[in-house]
């Protein structure tokens, strides 16, 4: 087998070089390649070209690389793995060219090691993934911006409608405080004067009718006052402040005692300070305590037990699937009163709704309670049983 000596410049070039015949015999190997693979200079000449390659690269050489060189006369930037004397796999990039000479063809190959190729490919893939992720994030950001703009417009429309509603409620409050109450007061006043001055000219039926007018006038005035109180809860100008709930309960208890002319047994656990509207919170506990006194069982002294626990609760109420937990006070308000059928646990919170038309009150107390709790971004529910009392559960956030 003829060999092809390598000239000095190619022998020490900064790249590996070898040439082989079509039968796979190596006829030239430069010192750079021999040193890369751990062989002495000239030791590889006469060996098979496959001996330079790993098993996978041998298969690639036989099925793709050599047929390509024969058909196209060259091969460019081919990735292969060489096998060193110690068995180490060395990745390289190879260029090949086919030369026709007397006595047959000669295939010449030059190569350079690419030991960091895997690292560079990983970095390129990572950079590609980062770019794709940035693109996705940018698209998501664009969609989020569009959604925010839509939500902003919807919120602006809701705020506009809310402002209109508040203006309407202000007008209603004015009507309730003056336009309705004034005629009722005059009706009550004139009926009282008529009763005092002209009672002797009235028949018994007329006197009874006049008494009914007085009673209904008084009831109507109480109803208007209750409605005015309910409407006033939409006043958004009332400032938030730190409120000691224990003081509020004590004040509400005293007020109910003075108005009802009777006391009650009240056991209250320590209650926290929370951020809220003092006047509204006073109304809340006044209505609850007043409700327990009004609907007490005959010949049974009213008893109220108030328990409180601090819990973590989700602040989202309308947005299902979204969560933000913060500190809430869970207050249990239980009495030993008459109770009612638990089927009406939602009905009792509606304004001007009464389970018994002949019962005391205007049917607006629990509606006020729900309104106050909702104004403080909380919730209220009730469980009851006839003859066993009523149990209210209030959830109130400590901070607004």
TrEMBL record:
Name the top EC class.
Answer: transferase
Domain PAS per the UniProt entry, residue ranges: 2-46
Which SMART domains has this protein been placed in? Answer: HATPase_c (SM00387)
Keyword Transferase listed? The answer is yes
Q: Which Gene3D superfamilies match?
A: 1.10.287.130, Histidine kinase-like ATPase, C-terminal domain (3.30.565.10), PAS domain (3.30.450.20)
- InterPro entries noted in UniProt: BphY/WalK/GraS-like (IPR050351), HATPase_C_sf (IPR036890), HATPase_dom (IPR003594), His_kinase_dom (IPR005467), HisK_dim/P_dom (IPR003661), HisK_dim/P_sf (IPR036097), PAS (IPR000014), PAS-like_dom_sf (IPR035965)
Q: Which domain of life is it from?
A: Bacteria
**What keywords are assigned to this protein?**
Coiled coil, Kinase, Membrane, Phosphoprotein, Transferase
Listed GO MF terms:
phosphorelay response regulator activity; phosphorelay sensor kinase activity; protein kinase activator activity
Q: Which GO terms describe its cellular component?
A: membrane
| Annotated Pfam families | HATPase_c, HisKA
* E.C. designation(s): 2.7.13.3
Question: Biological process GO annotation list?
Answer: osmosensory signaling via phosphorelay pathway
Q: Where is the Histidine kinase domain?
A: 175-400
Q: Which residues form a coiled coil?
A: 117-172
Keyword Amino-acid biosynthesis appears in the UniProt entry: no
Record field: catalytic activity: ATP + protein L-histidine = ADP + protein N-phospho-L-histidine
> What is this protein called in UniProt?
histidine kinase
